Amino acid sequence: MRDFSYIRAASASQAGSAAQQSGAMFLAGGTTLLDLAKCGVSEPETVIDITHLSGMSGITVDTAGARIGALARMSEVADHGDIQAAFPAVSQSLSLAASAQLRNMATIGGNLLQRTRCSYFRDPGAFPACNKRNPGSGCAAIGGITRNHAVLGASEACIASYPGDLAVALVAFDAVVELDGRKVAVDDFFLAPSNTPDRETVLQRGEMITAITIPASAAAVNSTYIKVRDRQSYEFAAASAAVGLELEADGKTVRDIRVALGGVATKPWRARSVEQALIGKALDADTVEKASRLAMEGAVSHGGNHYKIELAPRVVTRAILKMGGLA
Amino acid sequence: MTRSIHIALDINGQRHELDVEPRVTLLDALREHLTLTGTKKGCDQGQCGACTCHVDGRRVLSCLTLAAQVEGRQITTIEGLAGEAGDLHPMQAAFIEHDAFQCGYCTPGQIMSAVACIREGHAGSDAEIREYMSGNLCRCGAYNSIVAAVRQAAAEAA
């Protein structure tokens, strides 16, 4: 890890202005930044420690929804009773991520900004080609080992998958990222790689996430996050689904449904075609299974990740049937 | 362009002052600067849990924590668990009783994690212990004995 200078920010505005200089990066939980600095992927010249800023870690839930300060720790949000009641999928997405130690460290703002686990991206010594690290250098993953790479949203420049769980639950329930001075829907916050995989979000230099807000909804109350992975715990998703479901008074017709996918796409992936196919329909296993397959419209296999095209719809089906009381 | 910074760390109830480069992690500060070598360096990448310490009572990975970041926090390491007379913490005693290690390298991290696991209220069943201890790897595979030790210590603490 290269050395850097360290600034402990006394205020958000001081942090913001310090971050204007080139090579400056915010440090919150440190679980991504220090990891990638050790890998030689991140080379900050100045690290701005924002963990001592006050007033940015509160969690409030009321009838309108939730507001979560960017410096709230993953474990605090996962264990928050009101979040568990109003947004079970959000709580579960956090509990099923990382380890207890990492959840005590990582902040909500930092969690959204975690970088891909693409093993080519993470190893600059062995694989100089990476359009995300070094624009224009190529992509070592294409034609390589692609078991963990994206089948949705990829481009010829980059097939790295977005590794997070929380953002998948957030995109399902129309959450909003609050920056210093503007608000962006989570769905718009993340960028597909296209020709510029180095640009992963709409964040501008020096801009900081200050909070996340999630509007309340009946679908969010009746929600789940199902994560399928190679190990039972402490592993990234092979495929995951955040699903929220609101039924009509008859107990079987879909009034509102939210479906988002993780582990299979280059960004947190809202599956609106699945939602559209089910709204107004009576739930049964066959209808749900057919609708879930729509989540893979446009999916592209790179060989090793082909299984995800089969796996992801099954995870979606399981989550919808569970919330509909059919499984 | 080495620029040392002067920091004060409160570790196991004692104040330590030291000069470190800003990039020095809490793990390296403990082991290399303060010779508190009970905290182990396994992967040094946040994947194995061998370096687990408590900061303000919460378990964290010292390999992904900058020393400068935890100035002003209360840090507890494995050296701080035993009583002043050298009497073992109940979790340390339970690990010995259940033979919950083979080579012992992961043990300080396992014990620090286990103490926090009980404090968090996440040691209610074997399945819950396994889930909430999943951030601590044991390459010798002493997991069954580790779960038994945590289960016993949780029962004693209840």
TrEMBL record, chain B:
**InterPro entries with a match to the protein in the record:** 2Fe-2S-bd, 2Fe-2S-bd_dom_sf, 2Fe-2S_ferredoxin-like_sf, 2Fe-2S_ferredoxin-type, 2Fe2S_fd_BS, Aldehyde_Oxdr_Iron-Sulfur, Beta-grasp_dom_sf
- For whether the record's keyword set contains Repressor, the answer is no
Q: Where is the signal peptide?
A: none
Q: Which UniProt keywords apply?
A: 2Fe-2S, Iron, Iron-sulfur, Metal-binding, Oxidoreductase
Which Pfam families does this one have?
Fer2 (PF00111), Fer2_2 (PF01799)
PROSITE patterns registered for this protein in UniProt: 2FE2S_FER_1, 2FE2S_FER_2
Residue stretches making up the 2Fe-2S ferredoxin-type domain: 5-81
Q: Which domain of life is it from?
A: Bacteria
Q: GO molecular-function annotation terms?
A: 2 iron, 2 sulfur cluster binding; metal ion binding; oxidoreductase activity, acting on the aldehyde or oxo group of donors
- This chain's protein is named Xanthine dehydrogenase YagT iron-sulfur-binding subunit
Give the organism, scientific name.
Rhizobium lusitanum
